[in-house]
Each structure stands twice: as structure tokens, then as C-alpha cells.
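Lab notebook, bench 4. Still working through the backlog of constructs that have no structural model yet. Next entry is a single chain of 125 residues. Request: give me the C-alpha cells for it.
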Amino acid sequence: MSYYDTAEICLNGHLISSSFEDYPSEQAYCSKCGSKIITNCPNCNAKLRGAFNDPYYIKTVEVTAYCYNCGKPYPWTKATIETAEAIIREDELLTEEQIQQFCECIPDLISETKKTNIALIRYKN
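Model written out:
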């Protein structure tokens, strides 16, 4: 039977283990950045998807940006969005309207949506 194991990922998005159920790392904090390690979505408590276990199929583990269960951004995605917004707000040459437009584009720039192409054009301009 095929199933996803649980991943261990730190709050900054570093993959610690893709097989928590089978091979837990037994560490509470990331050795790369020192942040806390989680195994569940902070919003809905769904397990973070790790290795896909199937004898006939191999799937590379990716640290995803959004929860597959509730659609909310994971902490590392939320931090990326907030950091990008803060950087944009520091630009004194932008109008408030431009700042708002850029901030609205950020989620489409970090994920693949129907609006990603227009977000890229707006960012480049």
C-alpha cells in the first residue's frame, strides 16, 4: 500500500527528515538555523508530507509552500511573503499604490498560479 510518510521541516523551511514515521531525527531544532522543527501544519494540524512510500514509484521530496489540506501558507512561506513586503515598503521611490500592487503580487511570484506571468511582468516593470 502506498502512503506519504511525515516530514520534519524547520520553521525556516529546511527539510530535516522526509521519513519521520520510519526514521525520526530525534532533534527539536534545526542544525542549520536553530529554529524549531515541526511535523504538522500549524493551521490545521495535517501531517507535513514527506517521502512517498510505494514499491513501484519513487518521488522526490519537496518542501512545499502551502498546506495540501487547508491551503494556508506554511511558516517559511509566510515569512518569505512578510520579508518581501517589508523590503518593498522600504523603497521610498514607490507610491502607496505601487507598494500595494507589488505586495499583492508576491504570493503569485512564489507559487505557480494563473496570475504568475502577470505578476512577473509587474515585478520587472
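Notes after review: Residues 7 and 49 are 5 Å apart (CA to CA). The first strand starts at residue 3 and ends at 6. Flag for follow-up if needed.
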